[in-house]
Amino acid sequence: MRLQNANRLLDDIKKLGMPEIFIYYHGFMVRITPEHHVVENGSLVFQGQNFVMRISLLGDTVLVEKTKPDNYIIECEKCYGVQQAKTGMGMTEVFWPKGRE
């Protein structure tokens, strides 16, 4: 992931709080709301009660700013897509819904 975009995401987490995340895997979609995050071993790690989710800050991924998640009708304060750099295939979306407490 490009470092400048990763830093922008980390700044948004400080400003807007913890995001919600959609994870896509072979047609399966999971929506999670992490409780905290850390940067560890080249990854941004989100953790909750029953999950750990990593976004690699190295390798073949890019962070793209979007207006909303692709498969969800919602207004967002901010939204990012994590995509494979070569194919543009979306893997994860990180977003902050408008009006969330």
Strand content: over 45%
In N-to-C order, the SSE pattern is HEEEEEEEE
* Assembly status: single chain
C-alpha Rg, in Å?
A: 13 Å
Terminal-residue CA separation: 29 Å
Contiguous low-pLDDT stretches (5 residues minimum) are none
- Give the strand tally: 8
Report on the biggest sheet: 5 strands, antiparallel
Secondary-structure content class: mainly beta
The proportion of residues forming helix, as a percent range, comes to 10-25%
User: What global shape is seen?
Assistant: globular
Report what the structure shows.
With 101 residues, the chain is mainly beta. The chain has 1 helix and 8 strands. The longest helix has 14 residues, at 3-16. The strands form 2 sheets. The protein has a 5-stranded antiparallel beta sheet, with helices on one face. It has one helix at 3-16, and strands at 20-25, 28-32, 36-40, 43-47, 52-56, 61-66, 76-84, 90-97. Strand 1 and strand 2 (28-32) form a beta hairpin.
Give a brief outline of the structure.
The protein is mainly beta and 101 residues long. Helix content is 14%, strand content 49%.
How are the SSEs ordered, and which strands pair?
Elements: H1 3-16, E1 20-25, E2 28-32, E3 36-40, E4 43-47, E5 52-56, E6 61-66, E7 76-84, E8 90-97
Antiparallel strand pairs: 1-2, 1-8, 3-4, 4-5, 6-7, 7-8
Keywords:
three-stranded antiparallel β-sheet, mainly beta, 8 strands, 101 residues
